[in-house]
Amino acid sequence: MMTSTLGLYLSGRFLRTIGGVFGVLFLIIYIGDFAEMLRRAGDAAGVTTGMLAFLSLLRTPAIAEQVLPFAVLGGAMFAFIGLSRRLELVFIRSAGVSVWQFLTPPVVIVLLIGVLATTVYNPLSASLKQRADRIETGIFGKSARASQDTSLWLRQRSVDGQSILRAERSSDSGSVLSGVTSFVYHADGRFMERIEAARALLEYGAWRLEDVRISAPGEATRAADTYFLATNLTSEQVSQSFLAPASVSFWKLPEVMARTEAAGLDASGYKLRHQSLLARPLLLIAMVLIAATVSLRFFRSGGVSRTVSGGVAAGFVLYVATKLAGDLGGAGLLSATVAAWAPAIIGAMLGILVLLHQEDG
């Protein structure tokens, strides 16, 4: 039977290795982002190296959050290989401790890491990312927006029915749109008219369209100086259309989803992000199980590089599956719950199946 002393020892080992791998990845990401900031700021006036270093420090936690599963995979493999090379794993197994018993401490550790990463680290990284975006816009100005697709699509409901708006550009947090095209429908869903406007300003309960051309089925195209299009959107809801789901804190996601759906906008991205954060602890557990399937063997005769390569390949396959499921969920082909939880569940089940075959089969 595994004692509490052994459990604490294994927990400490896994916590140190996972923390060490994550720290190395964090440093690599920071150096790479800092170099990119230096390149982009080559022609910017009044920008100091210290300012760019601080900006990269604000940006790095959000980027590093995406590599947390790989940090857990690498840390778990290094911990397992270290135990095996020093024969500690042999003594533990000879004492009658099963694989499921000595896997309990790392599983508990990564479960706690996953919970803290979702509830504490994610809100902090999202807040820092939003602050970094404001600083980046102030430093680089228009060039910061030039590299992004500034087109905006909005679907809205109102007392007159539904309408879809597309704008080439926006400003003032989405309250002012330029190059606007709107498709307006009756309350029963029938197409009513197409409106093209040079500019749209969001007022209370309506968009004020300026320099308008209106095309309706069976009618000649007509022009107007001003056209009021009813809406139930607020400036805050419009500005959320520019906010990527990854930039929203875990604790704010339910509120953002509710407001987005109430406005008739697509909230699938926020739903997928929320479910992915909820599934993160299970995904990290799956990474530990995958690491165990390729690392629990005797390494005195070599084969470490082959084992590490196998673990990295297995983790990469799981990562690709997660991204593919996320893309399908974002496109509406899968529900957010299935897209977020299926890769973690399948990865964990496959890890358990392989361990059962290796240990008990």
Q: What's the gyration radius in Å? A: 26 Å
Q: Indicate the structural class.
A: alpha+beta
Characterize the main sheet.
6 strands, antiparallel
What is the total tally of β strands?
Answer: 6
Walk me through this protein's architecture:
This protein has 361 residues and is an alpha+beta fold. It folds into two domains: 4-142 and 268-359, no CATH class; 152-242, lipopolysaccharide transport protein A fold (Sandwich). The protein contains twelve helices and six strands. The protein has helices at 4-40, 49-65, 68-85, 88-94, 99-102, 104-140, 142-146, 235-240, 253-262, 268-295, 304-330, 336-359; strands at residues 152-158, 161-171, 176-185, 191-203, 206-215, 222-230. The protein has a six-stranded antiparallel β-sheet, with no helix packed on it. Strand 2 and strand 3 form a beta hairpin. It is elongated and about 85 Å long. Residues 142-149 have low confidence and may be disordered.
